[in-house]
Amino acid sequence: MATDRVSPLRKRRWSAMTLRKLEGSIFIAPWILGFLIFMAFPLGFSIYMSFSNVRILASGIDVKPVGLQHYDYILFKNPVLLYNQLIPFLKQQLFIIPIIVIFALLIAILLNQKFYGRAFFRVIFFLPVIFSSGQIVREFIAQGKGELDGGGDPDTAGSFNSFIDMSSFVNSVFPPSWAGPIQTVLNSFVIILWYSGVQILIFLAGRQTISKSAYEAARIDGANPWEVFWKITLPGMTPFILLNTIYTIVDLFTFPTNPILSQMDTANIGRSSALAWIYFVIIFLFLGLFYVIFSRATRSQRALRG
Amino acid sequence: MPELPTKRKKTSWKPNQISQYLLKSKFVLLGKEADRGLLFKIFIYLLLFDTAFIYLNPLFYMISSMVKSGPDILDPSVIWVPKSIFLGSLQEAWTTLNYPNAFMISLYLSTLAAVFQTVFCAVAGYAFARLHFPFKKFWMACLLLTFVVPPQVLILPMIVAANQMNLLNTFWPIILPTLFGHGLKGALFVIIYRQFFYTQPKELEEAAYMDGANVFKIFFRIMLPLARPAIIVVFLFSFVWSWNDFYYPSMYLLQTDAQPLSLSLSQLADYLKKKTELEGPSIFDNSIKMATSFLMIVPLILLYSFTQRWFVEGVERTGLVE
């Protein structure tokens, strides 16, 4: 640098870019450190453990590599462990996830209309976020509070069940392997609605992004609300539908009380690790599948948007 | 000068008046546009009331079954409103849960986790949104990975590591990740902060840079106070999720006396089962379960009722939007 030749005592200055990179690195360093300690290391170690037999001894742990034995056991030798729980669970999720997302979308749109008491209703609909903890939810489902008629006595007049006998209807229309999961979904319908708290928030926030001028222009041009919904609101919400569905999938699949993960225990760490990894791959496949379908469905819309 | 128009004699033209009234009422009912009329608003109210009732139904059930006395439970005509309020179930729930102790522990854990996550996820979120550092795209992909990976995949190595370091029955395995911006659903909070800082105008920072501030000053003096909606949302969510979480405590704190409420609640089921084996089922079992659930969520409901105003506003302003 010219300055160096002029005065060799002057210190070389860092370029602005380097300085910025340094500042950025300082800010992100705790997070990266945390990622390495709490995410990368456990991930790697968990893979390693899933390929070995692990025992905890007083002096430390004892890891003996056994190759693909655990995966073999779970996937092929002992299907009860995985498939019995997995298939009905996946079938349930197939219903639960669209229900939650669509319900959240409708409620968010409703809550966006201007009417008195809007704030009151918003409070009510966000309330379940506060107490959707695992046990309380399970307790309610056990009491039958999840059904649409509030688990009332079937003899009392006016209960939902007395008008439409849901279970026989479901059992007669759907093949047996599907009827079970559908019945479970219907039984816990209200609780499923409870899981939509966060999604409603996200949709509400997303609804704010659609510019008011688009709505005003539609209004001036004489569009009725139905057309407005399909042509303006829904296309504008597509990125949030994607975000919400991904969040719902991840949230529901990682709920600690789901049947597959509750089989993990510290007795056989190697096998549990293998189970967790298989489950994780399944989640990944599910997410990928959904992302592909979503991209296809909105391909024309995104081409239009450019 | 133009002639003033002569005043027309008012003919009692009934059909015209009637059609005017009809038109007016049509506008009132249906509105000049379809979603401003009275009918539409009534429809919305009905829909919302019904949904709200279905939503809150379990909550009402919880409260009403909690205060029912013995005769009320057995009385089939008493569904919602008990004839007398009986607090015995509440008392028994209180002692079974070891409520004061468990409450303080839950409070301690949740507050610590919430505070740490609020601060350190903001730091990471700001870095992802506004700052440059090497391999930024790679680390963003890592952030998404953190979002997707279920905690169950990571828990076993963490338990092994905690065991090695003799931290197993302490609070450290739960609190330590939050110090780095991770922890329970930490990735979601980083994403929320990132979205928020992304949508702030760059001019603020540029002006501050030109005035000679370094990045730390900018963050702590300008961006962080600006991020109040995001801070409120993240703090509330973090507190609530940590309070309700029983997975991490069940993995790390199982053998100690220091058990948060969520853990006590899950052990209540076992306790009741044992009691049933000894003494036979009691009609109060349901009430006790409802009472314990209620005791656990009452602090959260209080917190929510005080902060819900900022909460709802905060979400709309975090700019979880592009």
How does this structure look, described?
The complex is a heterodimer of chains A (306) and B (322). Chain A is mainly alpha-helical. Chain A has 2 domains: 14-65, no CATH class; 69-146 and 188-305, MetI-like (MetI-like fold, Orthogonal Bundle), CATH 1.10.3720. Chain A is 73% helix and 3% strand. Chain A is built from 15 helices and 2 strands. Chain A has helices at residues 2-6, 16-50, 69-77, 79-112, 118-131, 134-143, 160-163, 166-173, 176-187, 189-194, 197-207, 212-220, 225-253, 269-297, 299-305; strands at 52-56, 61-65. A two-stranded antiparallel ribbon of chain A has the order 1-2. In chain A, helix 4 packs across helix 9, helix 8 (166-173) packs antiparallel against helix 9 and helix 11 (197-207) crosses helix 13 (225-253). Chain A is globular and about 75 Å long. Chain A starts with a helix and ends with a helix. The model of chain A is unreliable at 150-163 (pLDDT under 50). With 322 residues, chain B is mostly helical. Chain B has a domain at 94-317: MetI-like (MetI-like fold), CATH 1.10.3720.10. Chain B has helices spanning 14-30, 38-66, 70-74, 88-97, 99-130, 136-148, 151-164, 172-178, 186-198, 202-210, 215-226, 228-244, 247-252, 261-279, 284-317. Chain B is flat and about 105 Å long. The model of chain B has no long low-confidence stretch (mean pLDDT 80). Classes of the chains: A mainly alpha (306), B mainly alpha (322). Chains A and B meet through helix 2, helix 5, helix 6, helix 10 and helix 11 of A and helix 2, helix 5, helix 6, helix 7 and helix 12 of B.
